[in-house]
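Before the break, one more example. Copy the sequence into your notebook; we will annotate it together after we see the structure.
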Amino acid sequence: MTALPGETPGTGGTDTPQDAVSPPDEAGAQEPGAPEPEAEAEAASDGAAEASPVEAEAGAEGEAVDPASTEAGAAEASPAPELSEAQAELAAQRELRERIEQRKAAKAAPIDAGAGLSGTAADLLAAVRAVESGEKAGSAFFGQPAAPQAPRRPAPAAAAPPPRTPARQAAPAPQAASPEALDAVRAVLVAGGAPESLARPAVGALGEQAAELLRTAPWQLLAVPGVRPEQADGFARALLGADCGPDDGRRTAALVGWVLERAALQGHTALDAEAVRAALAERAVSDPDAAVREAVEEGVALLFQEGEDEEPEEDEAAEEGGLAPDADTPREPVRILLGLDRYALAEESLADGLARLVNACEKAADWAEAAAAAPSPSAAELIRTTAAAGLVAHSGGEAARAEPAALIAAARGLGLRAFGAAHSEDGRRRLAAATGDPDTAVTLAGLLSGAQGPGRDEDGALALDLLVVLDAPQLDVENAAVLVEALADGARLVLSGDPGVLGSAGAGRVFADVLAARTCPQVVSRTPDPGPIGELVSGIGIGELNQVDAPGKEVVIVPVRDAGEAVHRTVQLVADSVPRAFSIPADETQVITVGHGGAAGTRVLNEALKQRLNPGPGRFGGFDPGDRVVHVPTPGRAVPGVVRSADAEGLHLDCGGVPVVVPQERVESSVRHGWALSAHQAAGMRWPAAVVVLPGDAAAGLSRPWVYTAFGRGERHLSVVHGADQALPHAVAEVPAQERTTRLRPLLEALPTPDAAS
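Here is what the structure looks like once it is written out:
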């Protein structure tokens, strides 16, 4: 691998970390009662599952985030004739939240999670249900088994598809809060020494009763994104004085919820109880066991256990048969998990829905002729497998995307309503090009909203027979649950993606859990990614950083000594070298770096690239017409765009050909410059050229999935601005994906799926 013509390679070396970010629980407070909204909001928007501490804490890049706008990710969109992709995601999340409340209100139908519990765990879960239903102490129900719940799939509301290309999309507006509620919350915040700007997000997080909740239980302020325990403690002391302490039940319950919410930002849908207790001990809680127990009884968290001991009947039967194990033989330890109810419901609903697809599909379809006409052996295998299964997992690299496209075309040729859903607008365009029919390709958000795809049938289900979800690793558990519940009985679902890339921005690891559970047939593509970039990325996927032959300068390594030189070389590559050598304009070259902070993070790189490529005064919130940006309409969703204009209505963007208007009050929190992105933001998209920046302070943020994802974003050219020295090969060989704690895999393994692959 050589330097580009005209480049002057420096000497390799490591750089002193410039902006090392502490793990989430260790960051210091700004002042009592003052939040740190940037860390919380950015972590949510960037999706920090396999992220480094740098990227996990920073999330979707941005400077100071307006706390008043952080509620937008969970707010209800204003009624409009058309739904944008962002509004679709919000509507899907709102629908799931409504089902959560309906199920919690059903006294006689507890969540299925209790069906598999026994002993103290079942007692605690019964106590939660008793408290939630309004009955007295949960101890009155100890020993009462949780009633099993029959799988059900509420039909989503039918929606007629609006025009496929809306004239303009407005960014979702924050949920309206009554002036009375805002005034009451402001008064409480001022009394506790907290900024008045937290009033709107507090009402968004806690509801109209936020003032009363904060007055009686000040630690509820932790529900506001960006607020840390130190700040909530200061707020509580100002309101309660000597009546509060580190072991106050209101404090410990709020801390348990905060710990689990922080874990969700890292991709976990549940957390080991021991980890929760350890986090509480770090926060000066003297009896973490009692605090966890009380939080479960109060319904703040649900308790689950994995690896249960054998049932007594099984032990007796073994003894009678002379097969009783030795008394000293250790049994598999029971693992106690804690989780938030919304993720528990999503995982259980998703598991039931996937089992329904597996068992309800007609398996006798004859697609032999279509398989014989497939363009490749792997495509033929995928077609044959899908003909005989309701759920299929398909894995492969970038070149393997042609196989789902061939499946969609074959199914359409058989008269079936077949569609493919991609993670991004870029992915949708690439899929449309592969199928040759733009109507077959949608984004997931567009499909769920009805803005793209077939719309809904008379029962409220998606009007399709086959759905292929590309970029499946980007599918989080909540969106997956909404999607599967929207599929009619008998529909086929194919989850397709590259297992080596970074995981979803939201909680869960749906694709990985489906693969690991082996509850459905799996098709592994045998189509390799072509060219030097494909060869390099394929090696990284198996832990090898190989030097590849790149006669056309498809892969170039540019060594740098420090972060300052890394920024200089990056600007030179984007503005001069790549356009000159490959005729790829600067607006088709994407810069990818590890974190948003640091001397060569996205903030610094975007500032330098703007000064070179589109200098201007930043007339509207720091942006000028022609600026490349990334719009974050909801946490975890990054949409590249270009600034077109600005007026009193807001900032006008062109996001992949779709006009979007971001209101002025939301620009600072949801729009960032986009010449440089993190690898999480770039996942699911590709550009003609990519420049990956690895400064010396990037070492702690590197992992095999990160390198695999970043290096695979360039189609024709990849430049690596390399100052991480041996940290890069070490990460590829020794640092695998960060594990996420989820419950989906055991739930899938426990469900009856007679046709599942062995």
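DSSP finds 28 helices and 20 strands in the chain. Residues 423 and 471 are 6 Å apart (CA to CA). Try to locate both features in your own notes.
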